Amino acid sequence: MKTVNEVSKLTGVSIRTLQYYDSLGLLAPAARTEAGYRLYDDTALERLRQIMLFRELDFPLSEIKAILDSPHFDRNDALTRQIELLRLKKERLERIIALAEDMKQKGDTDMDFEAFDSKVIEEYAQRAKEKWGGTPQYEEYEQKHGGETAEEQKSAADEFMELFAQFGALKDKPADSPEAQEMTAKLKAFITEHYYTCTDEILYSLGQMYAAEGEFRTNIDRAGGEGTAGFVSRAIAVYCGK
Amino acid sequence: MKTVNEVSKLTGVSIRTLQYYDSLGLLAPAARTEAGYRLYDDTALERLRQIMLFRELDFPLSEIKAILDSPHFDRNDALTRQIELLRLKKERLERIIALAEDMKQKGDTDMDFEAFDSKVIEEYAQRAKEKWGGTPQYEEYEQKHGGETAEEQKSAADEFMELFAQFGALKDKPADSPEAQEMTAKLKAFITEHYYTCTDEILYSLGQMYAAEGEFRTNIDRAGGEGTAGFVSRAIAVYCGK
DNA sequence: CCTTGACCCTGACGTAACGTAAGGGTGTAT
DNA sequence: ATACACCCTTACGTTACGTCAGGGTCAAGG
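Predict the joint structure of the above. Result:
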């Protein structure tokens, strides 16, 4: 059983914040001394760690509470998606770093802000929230995707990579060829069906991410061969009317 | 010359935010139409990009203004440090991702929060702010480090790596051997002299960063051979009384 | 010329997630 | 017995915006 002070030192979370979380009902201490001192046990600490992960993803405290308290809450599923979101965040940071390096090297007069774009992250987060029942859309989601098993989800990821392999086979044709454009439409439909509603806007953002150096590009090029990611990105740009 | 709407769509910054920045004097439009509509040119956009980089590092707007308006402001120097800070942030994210993966795999009952630690980033940011004159400490900093040229700074980085090479030579001895402890003291002194005041607390945080997978460990192991980063980390832990 | 719809303006107020300070108990070491 | 490091609650302050409300602007169409 740890006091606020100890927890604060261990976790880096301020005492005031612990009190605040308690007042919100977000994180109650396991017990209190007679004098009213808060005492935290390992269960509380584990919850705090979950909270900190969500906070890292800029989830509002109210939603964190809703998610953690939801009867549907599944720790493992939550972690999976949190990891995915953290990866997206890292990729975004990498693109920003690359931008800053560009700015430093050349005077970089072409005004580029794509790197700051976070539409994809937000869209994904939105989807995760719906799934988690942080919002009332949960039931709707359940009806659409509830029956999916872990294997089905994994096979979706494989199918996704398969799409890029198919892109790879076309990569010597021009980006505005009918074949490339058809594949782009397929990609968009696939994302909408399996992950989140993919508007042209979001699709374009995705294209930018694919082209930037990072894990995305690496994985796509692995699936479809060197240069596939760039090709997909160009095809998407054409598809979205540049 | 772009209107608020155009700038907003280009950059992802909301119109309200642009108006707010204007009211703060942080980002004034290049001109106004007769009707009072804000009009932004490329100079303004470049400034906005700088602002967004600083915001990415969680600098308060008041400090961003102070830095950008400082007579000492040097775009290139700023970018260099921003990149460094963004890298630190990325490393932190990577550690958090690794933690989340650990949590998922094993139930992970050992309460570990090191990954969330951001002392090193804050310390580095503090140093950067002092250098940039965002705070009144600028003059003091100038006196201590003002005369440093770019080459001198680069040689400092080399010297830094040299320290790890020396650590590498000791890595078969125990972490609590006098030699390892002496090297640790040297490392601490070096950081204090060249980067920021390195307390035991911060040194320990650094040690944790070195050991975690990421660029830090890669670079250190490159300088001193496989396993050097881990060795340094252990030596630091001993030095700081674990 | 007039209207409509998409923009733009300036207040003014609301909000989230804390920080800070005030006023006052607690616990144990000397 | 008092010093000192903790702890509590209550209340107000702060940052960086979001969200109206009330009211001009401007190009296109009838």
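Residues 75-105 of chain A form the longest helix (31 residues).
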